[in-house]
Amino acid sequence: MRKLALIIALTLGGCEHSHLAGNEALLDKQFKLPFDSTFVLEQTGLEISFIRVNEDSRCPADMECDWQYGQVVVLLDLDEGDNGGRLVLGTPNYSNKFSSSANLLGHRISLLGIEPPPANFGDKIPEEDFIALMWVIKE
Hints:
By secondary structure, the chain is mostly beta strands. It has a single domain, classed as Tick-borne Encephalitis virus Glycoprotein, domain 1. Helices cover 9% and strands 42% of the residues. It is elongated, with a radius of gyration of 18 Å. The model is unreliable at 1-19 (pLDDT under 50).
């Protein structure tokens, strides 16, 4: 019986966000935003949609490149009631061609990373396979 209680406690302890619907996220918590999906920030009602991959200039997985600091650049659509806007963000790197964070509608929106990793030379990752790792705070 003690083992069962411990297993239940450990299982429930890992379900911090179990009350969230499949398309909701929390402020100040990382979340994964798949391509062509919209997530709503539970506390503020801000909707964030991942609508396009503008560029994937990362070095192919099977090559060594002089330009190791390529980016994936994404277009996001934001909507909060009567207000809205679009953001172009790039994955973090040292070249800073595109910023990985921006302020809009009273929020700081950050692109922390992207999935999947780069493809091999000559292969193209379908746009629908991209997932943006996001983080949003209230300004």
